[in-house]
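Researcher: Dear colleague, please comment on this protein.
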Amino acid sequence: MLVFAGGYTQDIPMASGEVVPGRSGGIACYRLEEDTGRLELLGVTPSTPNPSYLAADPEGGYLYCVNELEKLGGVPGSGVSAYAVDPESGGLRLLGRQPAAGPLACHAAMSPDGRHLLAASYNGGICVLPVGEDHALRTASCAWSFQGRGADSDRQEMPHPHQILLHPKEDRVYVCDLGTDRLRCFRADWARGWLLPEEGNDLPVRPGQGPRHGVFDRQGRRLYVLTELTGEMDVFDPETGELLQISPALPEGWTGPGMGAAVRLHPGGRFLYASLRGPHCIAVFPVREDGMLGAPSFYPSGGRTPRDFCLTPDGRWLLAGGQDDNSICVHRIDPSTGALEQVWRVEDAGSVTALTVWNGAH
């Protein structure tokens, strides 16, 4: 099983005011030993700047990344790149690059049929990029920018699209807008490559929460949204739009910034995982039969600033990237409790901001 890691190759300012040094060499490929959790570095593809988020083709064979930049070609903007994957070596061959919808592209997701790549830009908007027969990206078929602000004058001075979520059973697409405290709803027309706004189905969160990333359950009955500014987990009924639950996602007694980052649902559906960059931990929520959450348990991520993590398709391993200490830590998952046990650590992985498992048929 192959694991790809993206990160910053160039210094880049964060919304919090800090500057993250570019310590990554590009997109790194590791082989994961599925019996032990050991990671072996196969190589690094250095031909792309700031590959800060990765998306795998659902049919396998190809990998896409955003290029999180403030300028592209001398003007404000960022990019999205396409690669062919060598399944033996993990080597990547660049197929091309297209502009994203504004500066600081930060997330990408594939359409269900693999014919479109959707990208969000933190200081811009969202766009839909058709995928050609050769799996290279074409010029955007649709792009949207937004207006508004939120309750936090420092972090919510404008819209900040942070993630694009595709409903697993319907043609609905949601955009986590950290800057305006809402998940913006669109209806996808995949035949044209369009996203059509459905503002009446937007999902507002509590003012000042700052929704960052979310995940649907397998049937689309529940939507779990991790907030960056307050470190909470919101549970929505996407059919009615009702906010059913707000659960604290920070360890008891933690008084520093929460900095909620990534959220993933275990393949078995019984556990929900979230990374918190402030306390450098992973929260594990039990998921009840009705989709509501129990009280979380907390485990060290093994590194500093766990901006992203991934789960293996068999649900046995969780891999967490440490953006600020150049680490990747592999954790064994207890199948009964969801608890984490660290079994392996890579010390020199660069400023890891994205991890994805690739097994040839992602």
User: Anything to note?
Assistant: The chain has no helices and 33 strands. The chain has a mean pLDDT of 96.
